[in-house]
C-alpha cells in the first residue's frame, strides 16, 4: 500500500514524464520524416504537369547530351537544353495520356522503316528495306551490347515521341476550319475603307520635364499589371577584374628572345665543360627540329598558298627567298618569325573518288567493324588489284565496301575541293600525284583506295617554318597582378568598395539581375561559381569574395538580393515611366481642350487639320501619324460625316471625322477568304500551340535548389 500511495502522490510527475517521452518520439519521427522529405526534394529536379523529373535520370540524359554536343557547349547550356526537352516531353505526354494517344507496334515498324530505309545495313540485295535484318541487328545488340541496345531503345522512343506530337498537332489542325462567315469578315477587314479628317496633338508637344511621375505612380501601375512584372529571384553584383596580361616590357622581352634565335651563338655546356656553337634559325638545315625545339607551335610541313598565310604578313612571307626570314611579327596572340623553306607548284584543287576500308580502332569506325588493320589492308590491296584491271567496277565496289557514307551516294566521289582540305596522307596523294593515279593510302580513318579524277591549274605554294612564342605575362607580371588583387580584397573588407576602387583607379563593373541558373557574367564569361556564391543562403549583401577567372582574378561584391515576386519600382521605371508619362500628357491635353470641332481644336492647339485616305482595319495605320489601332477602330465605328470626341492614341490625342465610307466589294462566294482564315489558324498551331500548353501547365523548376548546376 505504501508503494501505491507514493505512486498516487507522484501521478502528475509520472504523467509529465510519459508525455515528454511520447513527445520526444513524435519529434524524432517528424525529424525523420523531414529528412526523408528533404532527401526526396533533393532528388527531384522538377515537376511538370504532375510528373517528377528525378535527379538521376536527368543527369544521365545531360551526360549523354554533353557527349553528343562536344566540348563547345557548356554544362549549363546542355542542362538547360535537356530541361526544355524534359518539360516538352512531360507536357505533351500529359496530352497524349488524356487523349489516349499511343504508338502501336505496326506504326513503330512503319516509323523505323521510313527512318532507316536508306541505311545499307538494313537493305536486301535489291536495295530494299529488310525488316528481318533490322530485327537481327536489334537482337544482336540486346545480347552483346546492353549500352548500345539502350541507345537503340532511346532512338525508338524518340521516333515514337515525334510521331505522337505530329499526330496530336494534326488532330488539333483537323478541328480547325474557316467558316464562310469568317471568310466574309476577313474580306471586309481587308476591303472596307474609310477616309478621314483628323487633328493630332502629339505627346511630344509637352516636354517630358514638365510631367512629374512619382514612385507611387509606378508602384500602382505595377500592382495593376502584376502578370507583366513578375520576376524570378535575382542578384546584383559588382566586380573589379585583375587581368594577367603581358605588359609592353613582357612583349619586348619575347621579341628579343626570338631575335636571339636567328644567328649562331656561343654557349657554355656544363656537361662537356666546353663552349659550343649553337646554330641559329638562319643557318640551320633541320628546320623541323629547330622549330619543334624552340616554338610553342610545332612545325607544319604542309605547303600552303598565299591565302593560307596570316593576312597581315602574307605578301611579305610569300615573296621571301628560300632561306630568308621575316619577323618578329604579331599574329593571333603570338610573336612569330617565319622562314621560307621551299617553293613548288601545286594544283589548287582536285577531284577524286575513293573507297574507305576501316579497321577496329580507326577514327569514326562503326561498332560493326570487325577487321583488324592487317585484314583491312589486305582487303584494300585486293580491291586495288580488281580496279587496276577494270575501273568500271569502282561504283559497285563503293556501294559494297566503302564505310564513308558521306560519299557513297556520289559513287565515292569528292568533287572539286581545295588543297589541304583532306587529312595529310589523303591530301598528299591527290595533289602530288597526277590525274589517273590509283593507289592505297592509310589515314586515321582506315585504308583508302583513291583514284585522282582531275586537277586544276598549278600555282605557287610555299613551305614555311615558323617559330611562335605565345604572348603571355612574365612571372613578375603575374606576381604583381596577384599582389594587386590581394591588396584590393583586403582593403574593401574594411572600406567602401567603390571608394577603394576609385582611389586605385580600377574600373568597377556592375552586373544586375543575375538569375539562379545563369552562367555568364558580362565581361568575364562563364562564371557559374560566382552565380552559385551569390545565391548561397549565407552570402550576405556587402560580402566580398575573390574568384579565379580565365587569365586573372575577379574581386566580387554582392550588392543586392531580389526575391521572386514583383519587379521593384527602380527596375520597372525604364519600362513604366514612358507609359505613365504618356497617360498624364493625354490627360493634360484633353483637360485644356474645350472645342468640339476639328477646326476649333486645330486652331486652339496651333495644329492643322489633316486627311488620310483608304484606311482599313487589316493595317491600322494613319498616313502621317503612324500605327494607331485604337483610332482606326474608332473610325470604323463612326458613320459617314460623324466626328469623334478626343481620343488617346499611341502617338498623341486625336479628334477624327469620317468623310467617306467605302465598303468592300461583295462577292458571290467567300470560300477563298475562308480558306485563308483556315490556313492562318493552322499556321498558329505550328507556332503557338506548345507555348500555350506550356503556359497553362504547372512547372516547378528545382534545378537551383537541388544544386545540379
From TrEMBL:
Residues 347-454 form the PpiC domain. Keywords: Cell inner membrane, Cell membrane, Chaperone, Isomerase, Membrane, Rotamase, Transmembrane, Transmembrane helix. InterPro entries: PPIase_dom_sf, PPIase_PpiC, PpiD_chaperone, Trigger_fact/SurA_dom_sf. Pfam families: Rotamase_3, SurA_N_2. It is found in: Cell inner membrane. SUPFAM superfamilies: FKBP-like, Triger factor/SurA peptide-binding domain-like. Signal peptide: none annotated. The keyword Signal does not apply. Its main location: membrane. One of its GO terms (molecular function) is isomerase activity. It is a single-pass type II membrane protein. Belongs to the PpiD chaperone family. This is Periplasmic chaperone PpiD.
